[in-house]
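Supplementary Methods S3. Complex input for the S-adenosylmethionine-bound model.
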Amino acid sequence: MDIFFQVHKDLPREGPGSDGSTRKAFGLLKGLPLNPRILDVGCGPGMQTLELARLSGGQIVAVDTHQPFLDDLACRAQQAGLASHIITVNQSMSALDFPDASFDAIWSEGAIYIMGFETGLRGWKRLLKPGGCLAVSELTWLRPAAPEEITAYWGREYPPMKSLDENLAIIQSAGYRDLGHFVQPPSDWWDAYYLPIEKRVAALRRQYAKDPAAQAQLAEHQREVDMYRKYADWYSYVFYAMQSV
Ligand SMILES: C[S@@+](CC[C@H](N)C(=O)[O-])C[C@H]1O[C@@H](n2cnc3c(N)ncnc32)[C@H](O)[C@@H]1O
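Predicted complex, serialized as structure tokens:
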């Protein structure tokens, strides 16, 4: 199996986050009906999908292109007694074929970067009912003039990364009202994401001790974690909540 999938297989999450942040972001949304219909884009293993089902009591349509994530999520939903609230769909976020105005809210944790923040906001808007809400988390510069090492790192890994103010301006120009935002705390990065990754990387380093190509890939995974450990004051995932206008 590819080293990437060996690092990521069966992690609790596929990006920084927590049930606490999902709850906090859900609390920012306005005007949701009882039992809303929510699209969760790039759901991954679906920790936030389960929490959304619990919070909303509605119907969550969870979309991803990696079928094993969708299968795992369907199992977890069954175990949690939430199967009747969650539908999994294998579909690309850049070609969602739901009719216009299908959803009361759209959710996406750590995944809109795949399309691009602005492209996602603009492209998904047609899927929202009038006044529908969107909540997304996006990697964001928290302060200007970051040190060269971290600017160069993210300049290579995610060149479109923007500042908070730039993202707020995009929200407005894409036809949404800002409902609030918050910086995700360090525990969102460590508890269910980077600590499990570090543990997995250490084990795989021992397993592939004599494989230089695998060691190089594992070093890249560790480097991302080390960058956050050193430069967490300069960037983070930020949760943005907004309402279609
Ligand atoms: C960084 S992970 C975030 C997963 C999850 N939301 C979480 O926070 O744990 C991004 C997810 O997007 C999915 N993905 C990648 N390309 C996609 C696409 N074109 N359409 C839909 N999902 C995609 C990946 O399979 C992965 O599950």
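The pocket of S-adenosylmethionine is lined by residues 13-15, 17, 42-45, 47-48, 63-66, 69, 92-94, 109-111, 114 (CB under 6 Å). The CA atoms of residues 211 and 227 lie 24 Å apart.
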